[in-house]
Design goal:
Helices cover about 45% and strands about 20% of the residues. It is an alpha/beta fold and about 350 residues long. A seven-stranded mixed beta sheet has the order 1-2-9-6-5-3-4, sandwiched between helices. The protein binds nicotinamide-adenine-dinucleotide and zinc ion. The site of zinc ion has 4 residues, from α10.
């Protein structure tokens, strides 16, 4: 078992352990005085892992109820959240009670948002089951849903009281989603951890996944502990994402997965920063090679002007400039304030 402590306003632990699902009740007992627990999950994950969680919670003395929604991003909206609120009320979940989010990033974001807003906020525990959720979305307290105008536009910062990670769950995760999560893993190597990057180059990630998860979570923990509300350093986690988000948007969020778009974004921005002499030469080639190794795309034939236009209309952009996350070299990153009007020129070099 390995434990990482997150020092946000309300500190919490992340426990990484094989078999932690079966014992989740014991761990949760240490952080919650709840009487009732509502397990929120999706139609793929609950049938595989639901019983284990419910049994363990019941053994620990909790009254357990469960809510399952149709798997997929299409469910991450206020309609499903509204159904969750009704479910919580019908099952007499009170302020001292607890939500457990069991699933990928969609479940964590939506159950977390329901926890942040139901009765003005109740505790929740993250049990992430996808690689993306284990290395990224379950840590840091960003919760939310999509609305017609865009992804993740309604949400809240609401930290979990505990995160339980069991990499055994990845055995049932479809390969497509494993590869999707690998883009974020590569990102962590790029921005903060040269040794991790080299490990990914030299070994097979699936064979050392516990080590990888621990390293990625430690990086995210450090960054969010310093900058809980993304006022500065947290933006480093957006490496590859400015272009990635633009590509996702142009493709109507169906052509490319998030990880695929981020992989292209990391390659494109690093090529550009290398040409501008801001990044050590050869870095872009190494990132490309690594993305290809994990079956991720590295190139898009969408025009640079279309990409820049989509990036500049991003609803999260404030004012006329953006903070671009760039690499000095593999393992070391920094933020470069860039005028949006200059972005097209920068990536077209
Ligand atoms: N809050 C944050 O900081 C943050 C960060 C990154 C991404 N996100 C969000 O995360 C979401 C993407 O997360 P995701 O890729 O995990 O999506 P997801 O939750 O839809 O999971 C992907 C698919 O894998 C299935 N699945 C998950 N775990 C499984 C397992 N162990 N076995 C079998 N099937 C399994 C799910 O049912 C789903 O079909 C997006 O909505 C994104 O906006 C949030
Ligand atoms: Zn991402």
């Amino acid at each position: 078992m390995r434990t990482l402590k997150v020092e946000t306003g309300r500190p919490y632990n992340i426990i990484i352990e094989n078999g932690v699902l079966e014992n989740c009740g014991e761990y949760i007992k240490k952080v919650s005085k709840a009487m009732r627990v509502a397990v929120i999950s999706d139609t793929n994950v609950f049938p595989i892992y639901g019983d284990k969680i419910v049994d363990s919670l019941t053994k620990s003395g909790y009254q357990v109820c469960s809510f399952t929604f149709d798997a997929g991003e299409k469910s991450k909206n206020l309609i499903t959240v509204s159904k969750i609120y009704d479910f919580l009320a019908e099952n007499h979940i009170t302020r001292i009670d607890l939500i457990v989010a069991l699933g990928g990033g969609v479940t964590g974001d939506m159950a977390g948002f329901a926890a942040a807003t139901y009765l003005r906020g109740i505790d929740f525990v993250q049990i992430p089951t996808s690689l993306l959720a284990q290395v990224d979305s379950s840590v840091g307290g960003k919760t939310g849903v999509d609305i017609g105008a865009g992804k993740n536009l309604v949400g809240s910062f609401w930290q979990p009281v505990l995160v339980l990670i069991d990499s055994n769950t990845l055995k049932t995760l479809p390969q497509y989603y494993f590869e999707d999560g690998m883009a974020e893993v590569i990102k962590y190597g790029c921005i903060k951890d040269k040794a991790l990057f080299e490990k990914l180059e030299n070994e097979n990630a699936a064979e050392c996944i516990d080590h990888i998860i621990y390293n990625c979570v430690a990086i995210k923990r450090d960054v969010v502990s310093h900058d809980e509300r993304e006022k500065g350093e947290r933006a480093l986690l957006n490496f590859g994402h400015t272009i990635g988000h633009a590509l996702e948007k142009i493709g109507g969020f169906t052509n490319l997965s998030h990880g695929q778009a981020v992989a292209i974004g990391m390659c494109m921005i690093t090529k550009a920063s290398e040409k501008a002499n801001l990044t050590e030469k050869g870095s872009a080639k190494r990132i490309e090679k690594l993305c290809k190794k994990y079956n991720l795309p590295t190139y898009s034939d969408i025009s640079k002007s279309e990409i820049a236009k989509a990036a500049s209309s991003d609803k999260k952009t404030n004012g006329s400039s953006i903070k671009l996350a760039l690499l000095k070299e593999i393992g070391e990153s920094y933020l470069e304030k860039t005028e949006i009007s200059e972005l097209e020129k920068f990536i077209s070099k």
